[in-house]
From TrEMBL:
Keywords: Amino-acid biosynthesis, Decarboxylase, Lyase, Lysine biosynthesis, Pyridoxal phosphate. The lineage of its organism: Bacteria, Pseudomonadati, Bacteroidota, Flavobacteriia, Flavobacteriales. Specifically catalyzes the decarboxylation of meso-diaminopimelate (meso-DAP) to L-lysine. GO terms for molecular function: diaminopimelate decarboxylase activity; pyridoxal phosphate binding. The gene is lysA. It is an enzyme of class 4 (lyase). This is Diaminopimelate decarboxylase.
Length: 401
């Protein structure tokens, strides 16, 4: 997309607004499938939690993806977007047995990540195939909140508890059709991922009726120029060789599944916001925008870096600004950033705004959530309206006081 396109979108749809480039999503999908082109049965399940807009899901379906869902509502979104139940994997954490049974009744693939639910589900529904989510205790992630493969993580069944899993499977006579690995996000070291994969292969030999092995995802994307990222081409070459070898040893061509979310949509997304005020203090120049962490929480929650540009004045003299929001708390997008001179009314563009940005937006301070626009076939399409006051109050019930 050109910056002129983004400026036109800001003018047409207002600000703040999220914009997603379908071309970038498509190229990322094709890059990953090409990296694993020598796997006979490859399936990418898009992680809905990254960005759950129905139009994004329909785009994923058109590319050939399935879905990775973590809630019954995400399952329902997938069905609403036209996905077949067999294309949807349901991988919850800490939900009730009743919710898992709801998903099973719909017919989607079930992935269970704790012994208690595994035993209860197997006892009640032994004929329904189940995937087991394993925690290999291999760390991945640049921030503690997204590094979830460690031994104290709430995710997955510990690899050391495989004997307990086998006991439950034997006693319930349940059918285990898949095995899944969970390590976290921002994988940098391919060798660490391959090491975790070996742990998963070893665990898989305990189950004789597998249809697939799911390696999760967590591929790191670049957030700034020359930033490090996961070399998916190298990973594809190395893991393909090992996976095909394992299938030969196992005696069956299994499906290899990945669950990319951030990898597919992060770089496609831009967040556009207008500058309300430029405020000079004794030590800092603040650029205050018409948004805050209610719309874009990642910098405050994860200390994540998002490149910021002034697309209204790209040739202006660069100065240092701290870009902040309008929430009445510490609400900082970037400190002392070198940006083309900012004037009140300018439009700032935040990069890498496709994953875990709108999906984590809220109505904090009773602010409206922003609009979403999809750049598709070289045109801007509104795919979510900006909220109004009616949206803020529609589910509130007033009582006589």
């Amino acid at each position: 997309m050109k910056e002129s396109d983004l400026l036109n979108i800001a003018q047409t749809f207002g600000s703040p607004t999220y914009v997603y480039d379908a071309n970038k999503i498509t190229s990322q999908y094709e890059r990953l499938t090409k990296a694993f082109k020598n796997v006979p049965k490859l399936k990418l399940h898009y992680a809905v939690k990254a960005l759950s807009n129905l139009s994004i899901l329909k785009l994923m379906k058109s590319l050939g993806a399935g879905l990775d869902t973590v809630s019954i509502q995400e399952v329902q979104l997938g069905l609403a977007a036209g996905f077949d139940v067999h294309e949807i994997m349901y991988t919850p954490n800490g939900v009730s047995l009743e919710e898992i049974e709801q998903a099973a009744e719909l017919g989607v693939k079930i992935n269970i990540d704790n012994l208690s639910i595994l035993e209860q589900f197997g006892s009640k529904h032994p004929t329904i195939p189940v995937c087991i989510r394993i925690n290999p205790h291999v760390m991945a992630g640049g921030n503690h909140n997204i590094s979830v493969g460690h031994i104290d993580s709430k995710f997955g069944i510990s690899i050391h508890q495989i004997p307990h899993v086998l006991r439950i499977v034997e006693l319930t006579n349940m059918n285990i059709n898949g095995i899944h690995m969970h390590t976290g996000s921002d994988i940098l070291d391919i060798d660490v991922f391959l090491y975790a994969s070996e742990i998963l292969f070893k665990a898989a030999t305990n189950f004789k009726n597998l249809d697939f092995i799911d390696f999760g995802s967590g591929f790191k994307v670049p957030y700034k120029k020359d930033d490090i990222q996961t070399n998916v081409e190298e990973l594809g070459e190395k893991l393909t060789t090992r996976f095909n070898q394992f299938c030969q040893e196992y005696g069956k061509d299994l499906s290899l599944i990945f669950e990319p979310g951030k990898f597919l949509v992060s770089e496609s997304g831009y967040f556009l916001a207008e500058v309300n005020v430029v405020k000079q203090t004794t030590s800092t120049v603040f650029a205050g925008i018409d948004s805050g962490f209610n719309h874009f929480i990642r910098p405050m929650l994860y200390s994540s870096y998002h490149h910021i540009e002034n697309i209204s004045n790209p040739e202006g003299r660069e100065r240092y600004y701290s870009v902040v929001g309008y929430i009445c708390e510490t609400d900082t997008f970037g400190n002392n950033r070198r940006i083309s001179e900012i004037r009140e009314g300018d439009i700032l563009k935040f990069n890498n705004a496709g994953a875990y940005c709108f999906s984590m937006a809220s109505n904090y301070n009773s602010r409206y959530r922003p609009a979403e626009v999809l750049w598709y076939n070289e045109e801007a399409h509104l795919v979510r309206k900006r909220e109004t006051f009616d949206d803020i109050v529609k589910n509130q019930v007033e009582i006589d006081i």
